[in-house]
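tokens incoming
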């Protein structure tokens, strides 16, 4: 997806919001139909049946008929794909869409003349029942665009994303391999010794965010003041997301250009960030600490970094088993849980090797790639070598 900043006029923005409302309404109806299904009942309607029902609904309701049939049908198509992903085990079950969250719609069957460049930094895209809407031409639009998606974030910003298969970054051909260890304090540590940190909000932004959160807690529900404060918070959050996305793009591009093979841990991020609150019968422990850890993991963009690496360097990403990578000495291979003196210091009690703990883990990840049969067959890593630490002789 190549995303661009959309710049609609006030009248066009109202029409875009109407498209978003129609897409959200049709999506929620599809969710309701599938939630109504129970064992023993007739199966929920599929995409073809829902399209026939949509035709009847448009004939009976003028406000729905005034909208774009393309927007409404594509909402049903997206729901059908979401259900297929759910039954395939790759995604969660699709849920309700709320106003102001995840607003957007998709347009298909785009013609060659529906996207045009007006000047060096200004382009236009043709949207059904809206007309030509300008967007910032920050880079060339991919050729042969067949569809695009219009979205609106919580900060009120509009974007248009053109569906296109990105071109892979060619390998440098140097034969170099790098291991990448993802963490919270250090977002990405490389086996070369580099330590990278995903940017977030600056000190002034964090203080302003805390102030806004306190104001929102005092504001009454449904008040105009609460709406304004929520909009200000959304702008700060959007700034943080933009910085993190920019860091992911630059870091993944740099790694894809410098190394032939990039080795990462096969982490189950969804399981790692699962809440620890438990249930009423069996409440969890250390819920607040676990919630903070989950926020740190998500802020480090673990999943986004690997996803963009796979997009830019397909076939050159190797995933290995993360077991013992933080406890094994990258110099002698001995596993010792006490060798990690702190979050940042690793000191082997057997051979005396010492370095940054994250860099040591990244080197273990790189070494583990040699034990992997192939990226397709699945990662394999050598088992831990448990030995008694040898005394280290220090010269006077």
């Amino acid at each position: 997806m190549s995303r661009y900043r959309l710049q609609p006029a006030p009248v066009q923005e109202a029409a875009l919001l109407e498209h978003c409302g129609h897409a959200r309404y049709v999506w929620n109806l599809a969710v309701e139909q599938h939630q109504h299904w129970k064992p023993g009942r007739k199966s929920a309607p599929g995409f073809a049946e829902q399209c026939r029902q949509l035709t009847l609904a448009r004939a009976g309701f003028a406000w729905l008929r005034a909208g774009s049939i393309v927007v409404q049908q594509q909402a049903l198509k997206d729901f059908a794909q979401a259900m297929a992903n759910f039954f395939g085990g790759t995604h969660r079950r699709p849920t309700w869409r709320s106003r102001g969250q995840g607003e957007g719609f998709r347009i298909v069957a785009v013609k060659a003349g529906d996207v045009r460049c007006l000047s060096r930094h200004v382009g236009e895209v043709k949207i059904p029942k809206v007309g030509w809407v300008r967007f910032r031409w920050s880079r060339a639009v991919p050729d042969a665009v067949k569809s695009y998606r219009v979205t609106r974030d919580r900060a009120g910003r509009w974007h248009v994303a053109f569906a296109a298969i990105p071109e892979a970054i060619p390998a440098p051909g140097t034969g170099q391999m790098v291991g990448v260890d993802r963490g919270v304090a250090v977002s990405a540590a490389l086996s070369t010794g580099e330590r990278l940190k995903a940017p977030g909000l600056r000190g002034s932004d964090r203080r302003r965010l805390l102030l806004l959160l306190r104001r929102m807690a005092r504001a009454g529900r449904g008040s105009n003041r609460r709406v304004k404060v929520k909009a200000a918070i959304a702008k700060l959050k959007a700034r943080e997301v933009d910085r993190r996305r920019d860091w992911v793009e630059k870091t993944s591009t740099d790694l894809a250009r410098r190394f032939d093979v990039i080795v990462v841990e096969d982490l189950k991020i969804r399981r790692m960030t699962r809440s620890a609150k438990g249930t009423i019968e069996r409440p969890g422990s250390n819920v607040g600490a676990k919630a903070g850890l989950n926020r740190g993991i998500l802020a480090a963009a673990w999943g986004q970094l690997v996803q963009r690496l796979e997009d830019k360097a397909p076939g050159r990403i190797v995933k290995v088993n993360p077991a013992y990578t933080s406890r094994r000495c990258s110099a002698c291979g001995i596993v010792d849980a006490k060798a990690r003196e702190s979050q940042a210091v690793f000191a082997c009690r057997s051979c005396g090797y010492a370095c940054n703990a994250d860099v040591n883990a990244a080197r273990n990840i790189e070494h583990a790639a040699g034990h992997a049969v192939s990226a397709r067959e699945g990662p394999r890593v050598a088992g831990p070598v448990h030995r008694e630490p040898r005394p280290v002789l220090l010269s006077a």
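note: Residues 171-194+251-396 form one domain.
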